[in-house]
Amino acid sequence: MNACKMQNQRGQGMCFPKFETAKDMTVAMAYVPWQTFGEVYEPDKALRIGTVFPELNKPFKGRGCGR
Amino acid sequence: MACNMEQTKLLNWISMVSFAATDMAEYLDTHPMDNEAIDYFNHLNKLKNQAERDYAANYGPLTLSTFTPENRWCWSLTPWPWEGGM
């Protein structure tokens, strides 16, 4: 469940809950992993792709993931 | 009046940096203390403002914030899209 680990930002006192492991999470709730700032696309590519963030570049291919 | 290459290039650049600045602004809405992201937003916003000022100085204002008395009320004086304007 590493992908679902929600991280707080470098001890900056954000008011978001910090879930370290899946066992801290309530069942039947949806969780979004916390995004952190890292690599970015150049402005021309960002406009073409539709996001500045490579990790959010998820082109729709009309089929389920993993297929 | 046909749009020249430089004008088109500058307009495209404004689209690029405006989009990137807006995307960064959305990131900062949920990460307001992320200094590295704030620095990058400031960098993009500076590029955007400069490009909009350059555009206004050469081709007329695109936004109310780049309107200056010198370039008059150009909204209505520049060509409409169906007249070859942008």
Could you walk me through the main structural features you see in this protein, from its secondary elements to its overall organization?
The complex is a heterodimer of chains A (67) and B (86). Helices cover 10% and strands 0% of the residues of chain A. Chain A has one domain (1-24, 31-59). The model of chain A is unreliable at 1-13 (pLDDT under 50). Chain A has one helix and no strands. Chain A has one helix at 43-49. With 86 residues, chain B is an all-alpha fold. The longest helix of chain B is centred in the N-terminal third of the chain and has 26 residues, at 5-30. The mean pLDDT of chain B is 89. Chains A and B meet through helix 1 of A and helix 1 and helix 2 of B.
Topology of this structure?
The complex is a heterodimer of chains A (67) and B (86).
Chain A: H1 43-49
Chain B: H1 5-30, H2 35-59
Helix pairs in contact in B: 1-2
Q: Globular, elongated, flat, extended or rod-shaped: what is the shape of chain B?
A: elongated
Q: How many strand units of chain B?
A: 0
Strand content of chain A: under 5%
Q: What is the subunit organization of this protein?
A: heterodimer
**Chain pair with largest interface:** A-B, 14 and 18 residues
N- and C-termini, Cα separation of chain A: 21 Å
Number of strands of chain A: 0
Largest sheet of chain B: none
SSE order of chain A in H/E notation?
H
Counting DSSP H or I runs of 4 or more residues, the number of helices of chain A is 1
SS content category of chain A = little secondary structure
Poorly predicted tracts of residues of chain B: none
Q: Write down the Rg of chain A.
A: 15 Å
- State the share of residues found in helices of chain A, binned by percent: 10-25%
Indicate how many domains the architecture of chain B comprises.
1
User: Which geometry of chain A do the CA atoms define?
Assistant: flat
**Rg calc of chain B:** 15 Å
Major β-sheet annotation of chain A = none
Instruction: Please report the number of helical segments of chain B.
Output: 2
Q: Summarize the helix and strand pattern of chain B as letters.
A: HH
Helix content of chain B: 55-70%
